[in-house]
Batch of 2 targets.
Target 1
Amino acid sequence: MSFIFQPMTHAGLFIDGSTQKFPVRRVYCVGRNYAAHAREMGFDPDREPPFFFCKPNDLESIVPVNQEAVDIPYPAQTSNYHYEIELVVAIGKDGKDISVEDAADYIYGYAVGLDMTRRDLQMAMREKGRPWEIGKAFDFSAPVGPIHPITQTGELNQADIHLTVNGETKQRSDVSHLIWNVSETIANLSTLFELKAGDLIFTGTPEGVGAVVKGDVMRADITGLTGITVNVK
């Protein structure tokens, strides 16, 4: 097949203990999946059905992070640039209408991720009832650490999730506090889309989101996974 220009190269994430990369197909994100974060954003944290949005899967948006710190630029058209630490689930095989009981069979592994957000643009779109893309789906919006295969970690249903900015704790919770746990999220999402190997699911962020500026250093950690350090430039 011939193309008029070079097709996009998909992002590849590091895999803990391997020289191979995890090819990213689609990036799904769960909105307001911790009760305390729902409250701080002005919403009722009752267990309503989960909702989803997407980020791009290209190398301009996905930022693979390994052991060393990475730099990301402060994005254009915002003055309220927020961090959101999240447990990221990597899907390892295809499936649709997956049951909660079978959902873990579709997990390849887990990683630490940041759902970076132009909050002012997101809120402006929300108030007008418009899509969130300009607030969520911009360049360098998704740093993701190495994926740890589930064969090594087991199911990750309880783990400390912790983000600091310049060494000061900003977010701290436990993934057991997810309103919709990982298996429930996979089951629900698989009724809307056929999940495929290579998909990522950002499972939601705990309370404590806030802004960063140029020069800030973010450190994101989840117990049992490789943490990531991200510098805002």
Note: The two ends are 40 Å apart (CA to CA).
Target 2
Amino acid sequence: MTTKFNSWICKPFLLYQVNLFILAGSDTSSSALTWFFRVMAKHPEEQVRVQEEIDRVFAGRDDDNVTYNDLNELIYTTQCLRESIRVYMNVPPFRVLREPIKVNGFSIPAGTEVMVHSYQIHHNPDVWGDDHMDFRPDRFERANVEKRDPFAFVPFSAGQRNCIGQQFAMEVLRLTAARVFRRFSVSLVKDSLPIYKIVTKPETEILLKFHRR
């Protein structure tokens, strides 16, 4: 009886987690790739560096198979992805306070649902400098990451309640980047400003042209 009861309790929870993993992950990943390809088109010198890294990792191979070890070698590509996410992505985490806290003199009672404004965190000039709107992949070099507070970059939230799909999401992004830039270069045909909602979307349409290398 206990086993059946536990199973009955767990099924809705597991279904919720699966739906969150698939549905939320697909929208945010597609948005991340949109802005990544846009920023690569706007920074051709960075695009060349990404392609050079991908060419080195896949040198002498004709197939498009990508292994986990391949992804781990895409260091500069990962830096570009993370910097693109920092500049453009905005998926604010929500939390319910377990205990009251004070923020800048304001008392917030327990049980209050709060939103962490990740866009402001990712554009805090005290952390990222006055050029925080600029695309600079070197921000995510190992030495720079290690000296920065771990809560300064929270696209997947942080702590015990971080995103269950963050590792999978980064693998999808790196895999897509590797397969696309191994075969193509991208240029910008029509640009659009970002609209920062729960998931960052273009104000109008973004048109990109993919050229076979």
Note: Strands lie at 94-96, 101-103, 106-108, 113-115, 184-190, 194-195, 201-202, 207-212.
